[in-house]
Task: structure prediction
Amino acid sequence: MVTFREFSKRFGRVEAVKSLTFEVAPGEVVALLGPNGSGKTTSIKAAAGLIRPSSGQVLLGSPGRPASEAAAREVCSFLPQRVSFPESLTGREVLDFYCALRGGTPARAADVMRFIALNGAGARAVGTYSGGMKQRLALGVAILPQAPVLLFDEPTAALDPDGLCMFYGLIETRRAHGQTVLFSSHQMGDVERLADRFVVLVGGTLVASFTAAELGARLGDRGVMKLTLDRLPDGLLDRVREIAPKAVWAADQLIVPAPTTLRLAVLDIVRASAAEIRGITAQDGRLDTFYLELVAGQS
Result:
């Protein structure tokens, strides 16, 4: 539903995106990650038809059409990183206006108003809204047309916990109905919870792409198991290090950085010793740490 083919974009001497190639399949939720200035916003705007490629293509729909064509833009709805509405209009008036603009009905605007839950502020002027309320309204505008492709640039900015739950529910519902979502975020919790696939840009270049299963395996490989023991028998640490070389003993804990596939073997070694296991904790690697490793490796 969204296809980047050798997409590049220059702004004067600055090449914001370089030969970007990847696809977002129907019904897939893809997170676009990267530090500031990595080309995420440029790529999403190109998918929305707001930026024309310097070279390459960005296609929307199935069959794919150039995103700059009006017919292609009909299949998508775009939420930019920064949104502003006339401050004298009420939230309901904003929704009514954009609903009419996209050929919707008053009933659709009413449904969206209930969904975004402005806590009774729909009749108040937008100028009185907090940042989080404006973001809820912006999300409401974006979902009005029920387009098969949603393009979100930092959609959870300024949302409170209730707003985050509303957004998570929105994405899950859209996925269940086979709709496609491409979004950017700096919030690793949003990304890990929602995305089917993760695409990482650094300096305008694609440096990694993982499915959720592939990412889970990578994070599992970076996990740590901690065993609380009554003592460290002679030779135990050396035997554990034969399969987990980074294992260390600290205070009363055997700390074993090891993938999930090796943890049972470590437990077998410990159980075969004279040590008493008094506690076990295991934790997979963190997405934010792995992301920082990817970025640092390309900088």
The CA atoms of residues 82 and 153 lie 9 Å apart. Residues 161-176 form the longest helix (16 residues). The radius of gyration is 24 Å.
